[in-house]
Amino acid sequence: MSTISERLAHVRETIAHAAAKTGRDLNEIELVAVSKTHPPESIHEALDADQMLFGESRVQEARVKIPLLPARARWHFIGHLQKNKIRHALALGFELFHGVDSLALARDMDRIAEDEGQRPRILLEINLAGEGSKFGFKPDALRAETEALLVLNRVQIEGLMCIPPLAREAETSRPFFAQLRKLRDELQRDFHIALPHLSMGMSSDFAIAVEEGATLVRVGTAIFGARSGKAARAAAIGLDD
Fold it and tell me: How far is residue 82 CA from its own chain's centroid?
């Protein structure tokens, strides 16, 4: 059985190959090791293999886990953030929130960040396929609400995120990744804003995501191994990796 260190090396090699294939600078792409449901011991092993950035998707789990790990670990919040968890999440020091999925949530974050004296960096989650099981802006709704998002004082919008429909073949995700990149480019052009980040790609399709312009890939199972129970069922319908 391979170790976390060995699996990390394989993921990094795959990212490097996909970047080289499309002439991209490898430094533009960052690996988010999705550590949710995995114990601190596994994260320590990844840290020992020079993986510093981790993704958590449940505030309660992160509140227990983060204090147990070295200060050199960096954290992104990659899941759906409930309104009543915003203040707790901000207190944990996440560098980036990947899944801000509505104008209402962005406004709540902005208001609470004002109270807390913070300026959270966020990505807007886009529901490209209109799936009822997933959160996120529909593309047309995002365009209609972009001006309202841009007047918020505290949240700093840095890009877009998506989770394509679950598919057996990684190549099936490519049109969705290309669509997200196109939407980002259109928003930058039409609203004269910089959106440098595209968070897309998980264990099954991150190489395709890199080829299509991902700057952040969220990889869990390919690094830490398979989950069991409820966490595995959530991953099976594409809610997380």
Answer: 16
